[in-house]
């Protein structure tokens, strides 16, 4: 967990720079929260479950239909340790697996295209690319027969991309809410890691 906070501070600092930049020009500041769904590979979708999704970012307007986006996002997934032990028959050997989380921090940039801008509801598509920091932490493997405990913590940074769609709903000329679904894929040397962030948020425009 301490490793997560070590990376979280510079991430939040970059978020502040991103949001300040969006404020300085004709654009939009966005904050969101929600959940996520693990997708692939099978070992990820079978043994990790949905967790929290948080994000912040800005959109610098190019035209009425297009904007450049920059964002910072955090996704957390929890380990289904009992299912892992049961499926692999490890309970017969007195092995137990508990705790465990995958924490994904990503910094990305891309484009947002509003399909039909309006003063009420505006559908859009969004895509971006960036760096994804994956931190696997707090997995505890216990061998009941040997009375031994092993804790697993590791991290890696990989390139990734996201594609999504959503709806902007204006509440006032400068404030509104949005709903968004994305597909995110992290490219790795073995099987790529993918998941679906589902978000609800607020936006403030200049």
How would you describe the overall organization of this protein?
The structure is a single chain. The protein is α+β, with helices and mostly antiparallel strands and 206 residues long. 17% of the residues lie in helices and 64% in strands. It has three helices and nine strands. It has an eight-stranded antiparallel beta barrel. The longest helix has 22 residues. The radius of gyration is 20 Å and the shape is elongated. The model has no long low-confidence stretch (mean pLDDT 84).
Which terms would index this structure?
9 strands; alpha+beta; 206 residues; eight-stranded antiparallel β-barrel
Summary of the model, kept short:
This protein is an alpha+beta fold and 206 residues long. It contains 3 helices and 9 strands; from the N terminus they run H-E-H-E-E-E-H-E-E-E-E-E. The model has no long low-confidence stretch (mean pLDDT 84).
